[in-house]
Amino acid sequence: MTTVTEQTAALICEFGTRPLPEEAIYHSKLAVRDCLGVALAGFDEPVAKIVRATALETAGTPQATIWGTTHRIPALDAALANGAAAHALDYDDHSRAMLSHPSAVLAPALIALAESRGLSGRKLLEAYILGFQVMTQLGRLFGPEAYEKSWHPTAIMGVMGSCAGAAYLLGLDNGSTMHAIGIAASEASSVKKNFGSMTKPLHIASAARKGIWAAQLAANGLTAGPHALDGRFGFFENFHGRSPVLAPDADWSTPLEILAAGVVYKQYPCCGGLHALLDNAITLRERHGIDPAAIEDVECRVHPSRVLYLDRPNATEGLDAKFSIQYCVAAALLEGRVRLNDFTAESVARPAARALMKRVRIVGDGSLAAFGSVTTVCMKDGRRFTDASPAPKGAPELPLTEDDLRRKFVDCATAMLGAQRATEAGTALMDIDRFDRASEIAAALAPRP
Description:
The protein is of the alpha+beta class and 449 residues long. It folds into 2 domains: 4-266 and 428-443, 2-methylcitrate dehydratase PrpD (Orthogonal Bundle); 272-389, CATH 3.30.1330.120. 53% of the residues lie in helices and 7% in strands. The protein has 20 helices and 6 strands. A hairpin with a 4-residue loop joins strand 5 (373-379) and strand 6. Helix 2 (22-41) crosses helix 4 (75-87), helix 4 packs antiparallel against helix 9 (199-219) and helix 5 packs parallel to helix 7. The protein is globular.
């Protein structure tokens, strides 16, 4: 019987033997570009500054670039610094199939490693697609039950995905790949208690770094247990409580998950678990001309699993507010949109926002889809307005257009690059598969002298 460890190693080692459809390459470019944009937008966030400064303090061999700069540092440190920036705003994509944020881990890790090794943009995208495949397959086994425990799945699945992509880029054989998986399994860690703090983005940054570190250690001969994901004392028993049993004919290479599962692109720079509510609130405000001052009560119905970490009626600063249904819905009703500057300390402290937050009620509803929502706004004059969403806009079934995603990239990158340079970069990055070297990605993001 094939074990999960064996299946994961086989997927990694056999991945390059099958041609990839161009549609998969196209979607990987969209995801990588989106991640690069939100990383530039997050460049000056406190967590990004702290991690970047710490990396620069001990900078060694110049191997990979800190995005948005000309600084080149060791690949491991670049993965860490860029990973922190990529998740600093919680504006990066996520996947419901794996219950994780794939690109904020995979792109920083694999771009850094590909740049340090002089590999092509096409090879990088192949590694991204593979890392996404591994994260999704393991994430499906991990399941929502484990998500509802203390673990942050992006950190857990992310280290495995970045390790898989790194093993592919390094060309590890099956034996070394098994060791890399075992090393990564021991490096996986996180606690959800840190949601709403600077340590949540650090989870992502650390997973990016640890994944390529595990692959590099295995490439240099470090060994690990042969079945680290399986059985008693293994990865799944540790994080999930049980070790899964695979079907004898399991084939993790199909379907290609970048196409089958896809990603959810964010319209709003806050936790994806509440985005459908924001779609509802903005729709109701526009459709009915709602005056926020005339609102008596707002009922927000979400799946019970969302209530556990999004019920934050007393959020007082930006990072915490990104996980507060009360604040985010209030901001959406007040402004008719939710933007980056809605999460400053001053915005969160607005008297109008604080007053409206007190009128927002959360109801757990097990009949809703995991990311679905129903929002009802009750007015002081007795009128009631309701809107429902099965999923947020940006999900595969409610996709944003390429123009939507291009505009998001330009909006995110303009503060660092200026509008013209950001527009040029957004166009250039859709040609990553034609780049002879992954270092051209960093060049596209570098500010002009």
